[in-house]
Amino acid sequence: MEGSSILPVKNISLEYGTNRRSVVSQINRVTPEFGPGVRINTGWAWEMKKTGSIPPGAAIWWQWRFTDEAGRSYVTPRQTIVFEDTRFQWQVEKAASMDIYWHTQDASLIKELMAVLEAKLARVQLDVKIPPERKPRILVYLSSEQVRTAVLFQPEWTGALAFSDYNIILTAVNPGNLEWAKNALPHEITHLLVGEAVFGPFGDMPTWLNEGLARYSEGDLSSFDRAAIDNAAREGRLISVRSLGASFPAGPDQALLAYAQSGSLVTYLIDTYGWPKIRDLLNVFKEGSTYDNALRKVYGFDTAGLEREWRAAIGAR
Ligand SMILES: [Zn+2]
Fold this sequence. Notes:
Layout: E1 2-4, E2 9-18, E3 28-30, E4 39-41, H1 48-51, E5 59-68, E6 73-75, E7 79-82, E8 91-94, E9 99-102, H2 107-121, E10 137-141, H3 144-148, E11 160-163, E12 168-172, H4 178-197, H5 207-218, H6 223-234, H7 241-244, H8 252-273, H9 275-287, H10 291-299, H11 303-314
Parallel strand pairs: 9-10, 10-12
Antiparallel strand pairs: 1-4, 2-3, 2-5, 5-6, 5-7, 8-9, 11-12
Helix pairs in contact: 2-4, 4-5, 5-8, 6-8, 8-9, 9-10
Zinc ion is lined by residues 187, 191, 211, 214.
């Protein structure tokens, strides 16, 4: 930053932040060094190795504030820049509910992926109003290695990195995993939409509802999921809806069952009572509620009541 003032400058601070969604406004403030006098030349570099990385695609804003010796304060206009992964030349494909950024891919693969994403997300009628600066961005890389190295300190690789506070998803898509991506991306994008729908100081909601909605976006319950539920029902080891409100079991078989049951529960609620009630339910969670009270308010039954209805509907005792 370069500037001049009539009186010597006493204080300079740089205020900056990102488009990260947050309940309280987050402004970072640093006070870089500067020489005495009326002409100043200073700067500051954000070392993400110290603060942790923000995801590529996030927007950064900043403004300078300075005070002269007479106590007068000045603020420069706020500027923004997108934090980009400059290793690649990005192209963008825009749709109503998301923008897809990609590089080096076959354009037909992206078109195919986009068409599937739009069709699947059309199933999810949450009608969330997302501010334009947080419109979901999907960064499609070629390989998982490219994703891993896009963000600092990424210990674990799970196929896609979702930065829900920014509505940014980093993923690798290639002909070898396209079919996986056609389910994984609508699932992750639905989590972003649900996150926006309940965003606020409260917003706690049962895991089965969040995961069930994400699973619903993938399409009708698979025969695989159905079989898992049927077998568990027959053997008397369905997971209780109350347990599904907390974090999911870690074991692969139980986790699979937890996702399948969540998908089935949400499908039951949508098919029986419709989307308006789902939207009402999310609104109640946004305002803050226990799980039982929220269900009672919207559907007239609590968690146990939902479990009874759902078990009857799928023919389980
Ligand atoms: Zn999920």
